[in-house]
Write a structure and sequence with these properties.
alpha/beta, 19 helices, 39% helix, globular, chitin degradation, EC 3.2.1.14, Glycosyl_Hydrlase_18, chitin binding
Length: 537
């Protein structure tokens, strides 16, 4: 019997969904008296609600499966048969779910990778032998916009255009006179074989970002009619050249006193470029995330009741919610946040704007492929920064920490389910042999999977991704994007393409019920073996 238990535990230990290396330290599971839960039924009920959250059951279809797990585990604890703490049980079940999701991703990606073209590519292709019959193609379920900044070199050649609906070109830095501060950027974007050509050849839209980071300069521009007309004349030429299919207005700071002027500027631009006559030309506005401080005041600079008449999508700056002067080390883009922290979250931002006259079907959340690296005092309790953080690209996190065999530091790899963010606790030492602590928060395939899942469940318009190319050399972030937000569709030759279903199902979504069933079986088998082992001893 002991041999059987050892083999089973060996199988469980072999689950490695987060890519844990030999450098990782895993906290020892604690054993707690189950009578704690027995005498606190409300606490137990709350625990199971949190425990089952990672499964993200469909409310009606999986209600019975959810209750089966709750009832089975509760009975074992009440019967004093199961001696597992809440934390250790949650860690175990989270591990199972992540492992099963990984296997489903592999299956899903195999199917996606067997499809050669995106639907948008086939729909724009001429009527040739290329589409001489019905063909399978890849179609995003939502808007998926990748940000490409000037000066990024040849990064754009590594993008997976089959998974993108648009490239957001960053961009046109607006001067107070309406001209561009960086005219070479447009030349770079528009060069032969450049990002615009490659994107449009793949059926991907191209949006030009008009940006300025100075509140005073934005005010001067909005009050200068000649400057506005100079900008409009330039944009009319760009639109007529068919090099861009949309615009994104990104003013980092707009004061409340500019509320009316900004709305008038958007209306004037909409009419001057005759956007109403071109349903395919898109107008987006970037708006601030709600970070728990004075962000609601910043949002007052926007008259959404007026802007909704002209704006297609609002890009939420949820890729950088946490401020660099935060009192605690925290992720850049937390999905949720507990009540005792000072920063906001994606959830609070969406909730705020959905109650501010904006339909969620116009809201696009933003994530980033770069993490945030904090020097900290230690890892116990609230993690306090020792200074301002630095951004760190995903590829640097992988190469310098997760795959660096020569690294002398001790690394603990973890995942925070509230913020849906991966983290690394890195303990090293300086030349004086004094301990140094660093905490890194970043997106990985599990964190992005959870955020994309939340996006779909809440029916947002889509996601924009900052830092495309910060993952060069690795495919897992593209893979989770495809597995979560891309569906297989088909295009017909001589008629309109087959429209996707209202509630499209990718192979991954169809497999979630299978995940739940397998998880139930594994949990029951584990508890059963534990009970047999206990009786034998």
């Amino acid at each position: 019997m002991k041999t059987t238990l050892f083999v089973f535990l060996l199988v469980i230990v072999s689950f490695n969904p987060t890519g844990t290396s030999a450098q990782d330290t895993v906290p020892e599971a604690t054993i707690r008296d189950p009578s704690d839960s027995l005498y606190h039924p409300k606490e137990t009920d709350s625990f199971f609600k949190k425990l089952l959250q990672p499964f993200k059951f469909r409310e009606n279809r999986n209600r019975r499966d959810k209750e089966r797990i709750r009832r089975f585990l509760t009975e074992r604890i009440k019967d004093n048969d199961l001696h597992l703490s809440n934390d250790s049980l949650k860690i175990f079940l989270d591990s199972i779910v992540m492992h099963l999701k990984d296997s489903i991703y592999a299956e899903t990606l195999g199917k996606l990778q067997s499809v050669r073209y995106s639907c948008s590519f086939l729909e724009q292709a001429p009527d040739t032998a290329l589409i001489a019959k019905d063909r399978l193609c890849l179609r995003p379920k939502v808007q998926i916009i990748g940000w490409h900044r000037s000066g990024a070199g040849n990064r754009f050649k590594n993008y997976n255009y089959k998974y993108l609906t648009a490239i957001n070109l960053y961009g046109y830095e607006l001067g107070i006179d309406g001209s561009s501060k960086n005219p070479k950027s447009w030349q770079e974007f528009n060069e032969e074989g450049g990002v615009i050509a490659l994107a449009q050849n793949n059926g991907v839209d191209t949006y030009l970002t008009i940006y300025n980071e100075s509140a005073s300069e934005v005010t001067q521009f909005l009050n200068n009619q000649a400057a506005r007309h100079r900008l409009f004349n330039t944009l009319v030429k760009y639109k007529a050249s068919h090099k861009i299919t949309g615009l994104t207005i990104y003013f980092d700071h707009i004061t409340a006193k500019d509320n009316a002027r900004f709305s008038s500027f958007i209306a004037e631009m909409y009419n001057t470029l005759d956007m109403g006559a071109d349903d395919n030309f898109v107008l987006n506005i970037s708006i601030p995330a709600i970070d728990g401080r004075n962000s609601p005041g910043k949002a007052n600079a926007y008259d959404f009741a007026r802007l909704n008449n002209w704006v297609d999508y609002y890009y939420l700056r949820t890729d950088s919610i946490t401020r660099s002067n935060s009192a605690s080390a925290a992720p850049k883009s937390p999905l949720g946040a507990t009540d005792d922290v000072e920063y906001g979250s994606i959830q609070s931002t969406i909730a705020f704007y959905s109650n501010a006259n904006i339909s969620v079907s116009k809201l696009v959340m933003t994530v980033s492929y770069s993490g945030i690296q904090w020097p900290v005092t230690g890892f116990n309790g609230m993690v306090r920064p020792l200074g301002r953080p630095n951004d760190i690209p995903y590829k640097a996190i992988r190469a310098s920490f997760l795959q660096n065999k020569d690294l002398q530091s001790v690394i603990e790899q973890g995942y925070d389910s509230v913020s849906a963010t991966a983290f690394l606790n890195v303990k090293g030492s300086n030349k004086k042999n004094t301990p140094e602590y660093t905490q890194i928060w970043y997106e990985d395939r599990h964190s992005l999977s959870r955020k994309y899942e939340w996006l779909l469940d809440n029916k947002l318009a889509g996601v924009s991704i900052r830092g495309l190319g910060d993952d060069d050399g690795y495919t897992d972030l593209w893979d989770v994007l495809g597995a979560s937000l891309i569906q297989i569709d088909s295009v017909q030759v001589t008629s309109s393409p087959v429209e996707p279903q209202e509630d499209p199902k990718t192979p991954f979504n169809n497999s979630m019920q299978k995940t739940v069933t397998i998880a139930i079986v594994v949990v029951m088998v584990l508890v059963g073996i534990f009970l047999v082992y206990r009786k034998a001893n």
